[in-house]
Amino acid sequence: MEPAVLGGKLASALVAPLVKRLFATGGPGAGLVDRPVRLTRLVSFRGEQRTLGDEQVRGLAGRLVADSLASPGEPPFPRDEETAVADALAARLLALGDLEMDDVQAVRLGHRELAARLRTAAGPWDGFSADAGHFLDTATEWACLHILEFFTRRSTFVARTLVEQTRGQADLIAKVDELITRVPRPDARDTAFERRYLPYAAERHDHLTLYGVDLRDSPDRWPLEVAYLSLEATAEEDRAPLFGDHAERERTVRLPAESALAAHDRVLLRGDAGSGKTTLVQWLAVTAARDGARIPYVLPLRTLVRAGTLPAPTAFLTAVGCPLTPPEGWAERVLTAGRGLVLVDGLDEIPAAERHRTRDWLLAQIRAYPGNRWLLTSRPTAVRPDWLAAEGFWELALTPMRQPDVTTFVHRWHEAARAPEYEARLLDSLHTKRDLAGLATNPLMCGLICALHRERRGYLPTGRKELYDAALTMLLARRDRERGMEAVELGEEAQLELLQRLAYALVLSGRTEMDVATAESLVERALPSVASAAGQGDAATVLRALVLRSGLLRRPDEGTLHFVHRTFQDYLGARYAVEEGHLDVLAGHAGDTQWEDVIRMAVAHARPGERAVLLRRLLAAGTPRLTLLALACLEHATALDPAVRAEVEARAATLIPPASTRDARVLAEAGPLVLELLPGPDGLTDTEAHGVTVTASLLAERDPRGSLAVLRRFRDHSSRDVRRQLVGTWGRFETRTYATEVLDHLDRTDLFLTCRTEAQREALPVMGPWTHLTFLGAHRAAEITACVAEPGAVEELHLVNNTEVTELDGLPGLFTSLRLLLLDCHEVRDLGPLARLPLTSLVISRTADLTGLPALSSLTHLTVATRLPGSRLPAALPTEAPLRYLYLGDDAIAGTGLRGLVHWRTLQALYLATGTPLTAEDWAEIQRLPDLTILGLHSRALPDGSGAMPVLPGVEDLFLTALDGDEDLSVLASRLPGLRMVALEAAPGAVLDGDRLTALFPGAEVTLD
């Protein structure tokens, strides 16, 4: 009860006289002659001239308490505690005599802090009920309000307050003036520097140079906002299903890549070569610099590790060559305030031995400066999936570009290059040529294709090797004299020879960046065998010309160089390895995931006999990954011994069809060639059929036409898992096409259709009615109802993670839903309108407002995973509902327990997935349920040894979840003599002893998950 409310029960007319009697009357003036008078000298019950004794104080306190109990309405606490409360209140009032402060200091504290000081001075007073304790604390605060009011009316108070304020202000002004004189304001220097740094950062990163492709008739750098393409990122999240929920534990979350840091402060972003990771880093830096809300730091790891010691925040700018000098301590102040956006790019571009050191460095910065945002980019296989999970990093993966993304990229590229006349012709080629479309899966390859298409006036090569060959011819044969730079005439073959040696050296070292001195040494050793380059100057001159002319090398600073993209490094390194006959070296590194592209390109470069040797070496390893790598290499083996090709395909047949979802994911890594080998549906088991559809789904982005052709064959399949996979992969295809060619043909039995996007909502009316619908995300109620052509057909509706639906008034008129789920719908305010629906099943989880729930009288199945109001279940749940199934999860019964559960004598199944231990009173409620046959319990709901559990002879099925494996379950069989089935589920990471647990229930069928 707040003090203002309690005032009506405390009789303010009594409090004011009490306060006046507690303190002696002060004289006029400001009290400047002596020190301010302490409260110990002001109270009237201390010293020789006492006018109020201890007993009188206790009497007045007792009268206050008695009048509060006698006032109309419900008493604020039990009457049998009246004397104890009065004594405690008197003790707190008497404690005023022990406070070493004056009245000005007391007023400065405020009534709540003064009350807290009195509680401390009076000492603890135990044994009160919760209501009595609350009354005592509130009464003390109310009295302190009157005490402070009394102080402010004393004649000396105002005068002394003004004097103290004047003295304090004068002293403060003098100190501030001295501080300003001695030390310039850091914030002013910081602000001035940031006004220079933020525009510099935005300008530095606000452009793209596409992979060294510099066309004669268009600029070599384009504005980032013109060329940037918003790509999609995905993450796999675990979600524990509710009892009876058959949803997959793993849920795919999709979002625009640039939104990653809006959802989480720490992100590990994975992406294949050329997928746009570095471009995204630039985009985040530019937008942050322009918004000014955060200070961006772009830290390419390949540059940082070269220095040996990774930089502290004070050296962030220096390490990346920023010419601006910040004020001393500026970086630390930025990060300490949580204003930083730290973008660490290219974990895969440093040697594996450096990555653990980099991890330690990164985590040290994060722990030292919490509250900032951190992004780390890497290739998918550079580190294990959970490499930073323990530190709270959210892992995302950039997805390959889809057809609409490719179309957008091509349009923007031609707009930026001022070459609109070639756009339509290229799009036609991408839509009709499968091989070409398969290459356009990331911004690197799309940009390369666009550049080649324009340079060749509409002609394009068809294969990956031919595409690279054509690109290299264009790049290496280009002349760039108009730049005014010193040029050395190096032919295409001479450049290739030097570049591939540099590339192979980098491949062997596991790096993507080398010192210029090392590169010059490699060029110097190569010059005697490259006649056309030998007479052009020394190694430094030739290397400088190679950087300027080839378009494939970049020097981020004077001391280092690297290829403009890892893909060119792998391609050229493979070319040199084949020329030098290093097949053993290639095969020896096949187990290293960073060599996968090198080996694939080596097969493309090799002669037929060399291909056969290399592929047999891959098969000899006998591992699934290398078998699939050999299978992927077949795409590049134009000419190959038929026996070797047959052997590869035969070995791959042991992996196809995949026997599990995990096998399907591994299989999909081999690429679109797998689509031609996928069988079915005839002759496949349901598990195999599911594995095939998972594989095809994963390859949708790389070959949507081939993937769709495979999935279309399974649209009449009866397996629920197969049908769910076909529904779940909707978002990877063109929405309406997939809806009409696959979804509309599916058997809808026990199948949910999930709508995530506006396009998916708009595609609903073109299909026949769906009886089970899920709307995931922020869909408005009007949008949901508008997209359902036949509302009467909807039997089950799920609204998940919806922040737009606030009122449910519209649902009864448009749906005849029998089952409804509301999960993470925090804005829903009233469940009452659902009473007009013939609801039989309702699931509510993490939906805060349960208003109207008691009115839902038709429910037979109810799941609640949010805290119930009140102290008894009948006050929170529908008492008129004939409940047969009740699930209570999370902290649902934290306040109610199971008090009143017996009201629902119709209950047949009860699941308690809460962490609240059951008391003897709770078990008594369960024991009184006459029809209960199914019981589900969370391990934490069981008291030690289950000693409080009564005998429940009617329970036939028992579900125990979140078991650690060391629980004592020995008494359960005797308490549940009618058991026929026991299902035991382990907690994450726990291992259950199946033999021991099965022996505990000799008369029941025991299953372990």
Automatic annotation (TrEMBL):
Domain NACHT: residue ranges: 265-579
Keyword Cell membrane attributed: no
Keywords, alphabetical: ATP-binding, Nucleotide-binding
Taxonomic placement: Bacteria, Bacillati, Actinomycetota, Actinomycetes, Kitasatosporales
Pfam families membership: NACHT (PF05729), NNH1 (PF22733)
Name assigned to this protein: NACHT domain-containing protein
Keyword Manganese in annotation: no
Organism this protein belongs to: Streptomyces parvulus
